[in-house]
Amino acid sequence: AGLVKFCQVSLNVFKGRIEYIVNAGKYGVLGKSTEGYFYGGTAASPALLGVGYIIGPRIAAYVFAGGLLGWVIITPLLIVSTGLPAGSSALDGFMLIWSDYVRYLGVGAMVVGGLYTIWKLRENLIHGVKEAVIGLRGGSVETKIRTDRDLDIKKVFLAIGFMIIPVFLVYAWLSQMYAVSLFMAILLVLLAFVASAIAGYMAGLLGSSNNPISGVTVAVLLFVSIIMLAFGVTGTSGMTIVIGMAAVVCCGAAISGDVLQSMAAGQMLGATPWKQQLAEMFGVIAAAPLLAIVVQALDKAYHIGSYDLPAPQAFLMGGIVRGVIGGEMVWPFVIAGAFLALVLIIMDIPVLPVAIGIYLPFTLTVPILVGGIVRALIDRKLNKESPEENEEISDWEMAIRKTGIKPKEKAHRTGLLFSAGLIAGEAIMGVISAFLIIGHINLGIFEEAPSWPGMLIWGYIAFLLGYIVLREFRKASHED
Q1: What range does the domain containing 340 cover?
Q2: What are the DSSP calls for 47-94, one per residue?
Q3: Does the N-terminal or the C-terminal CB of the chain have fewer CB atoms within 10 Å?
């Protein structure tokens, strides 16, 4: 996957996607004659192939359905009714209409979907906060058992109080609003506590992949934005503080889920809790500046929120803040997306996959669907060859099981590991290529690279994914 990405982006041996637009003829709308267009294509992305395999055929199909809705139905209808933007080609006009209008449908649906996720999990979330409060009230209890020793809770609170100072300084530096920055820094501690309690509890209950980070962050964004409006703070300064608070809460929630998973693994291995907790802190301190450098490099090279780096959650958060505080939002489409989400909820269809499919470029939803189809075909083949293995277990349970591993489980582990490797390889090479781009290091071989070699390689990787899983299954069945 890393080699494919390097050939696409840095060497320019072949293109990373193929796309086309078809003229569907002329149509008369409101007394005007306009031309209709249909768009199609796919990205040759091994990483998205792996994503589709991991999330499975059901969710992958919902993401693709969102892409069909946004790109094959809504955008062509808008073009027929309004025509292409003046002075633009058919393809460029299609992209402009999607970028300026249609993807805000996805934003509205994602907001409602995130809030609905929190509502569905309200009982578990409340329970998680209660457990955290009870733990705080109990404080730290002296114990002689090494595997039960946590960090001193008093020192933890002192550290939290100390962290208010740099957070306040950052907010004040960004916004030049000292009183508001101080209040928001103190409020941040409370919001981060609640978000971390929720995320940690849900990670322990359902696994870190089911952590409702986006929903929690959306709720915080809306809450903080309303507070800022109550203070009369608008413009860039207000938006900067809100985004800063949401970023800290989002990171806290994400790290909380990760820490709880690490602590669970440590308990299985007999680790010392307070040493694990210190190690997690040092890990965050070491990773934070490097992450900032990587994100800045990706933004300079590909531009966050662009076609090449869509970043749906980032665009969603920025859109909410611009809409509530800055008054910059295509509200008719956002509201339409919210109503679409309500319809999906009534139909008992997951909202977020469909919303993300509407938001993402269509070429990215196709490889996700293909990965889901590969998973479905493999599951069908394995179920046919081993009908006696009808126990349903989650990928998380499969990953931690040590004994009694059946051939089907071993094969699926191989598929998940291979898919994770595709994602990691392409992601790492994407970062390396970003540094080459911003360093103005041009390794391109062709000026105009063809698309078909990338499509062939991508198809071979899809075949290889299925082949390796089936080979592992037959090997494990023979050994069993």
Answers
A1: 117-354
A2: HHHHHHHHHHHHHHHHHHHHHIIIIIIIHHHHHHHH-SPTT--HHHHH
A3: C
b or e along 447-465 (b: 16 or more beta carbons within 10 Å of the residue's beta carbon)? eebebeebbebbeebbeeb
What six digits make up the tokens of 16? Answer: 């990373």
Q: What is the DSSP string of 8-20?
A: HHTS-SS-SEEEE
Evaluate whether residue 200 is within a structural domain.
yes
Does an H or E element contain 38, and which? strand 32-43
Per-residue pLDDT tens over the stretch 96-126: 888 888 888 888 888 888 788 778 777 766 7
What is d(CA 55, CA 50) in angstroms, rounded to the nearest whole number? 9
Number of domains in the chain: 1
Cα–Cα dist 200/36, whole Å: 50
- For 42-63, the pLDDT digits (tens) are 999 999 999 999 989 999 999 9
Q: What is the DSSP letter of 326?
A: I
Flag whether 301 is in a domain. yes
Name the helix (H) or strand (E) containing 43.
Answer: strand 32-43
- Whether 434 is covered by a domain: the verdict is no
343 located within any domain: yes
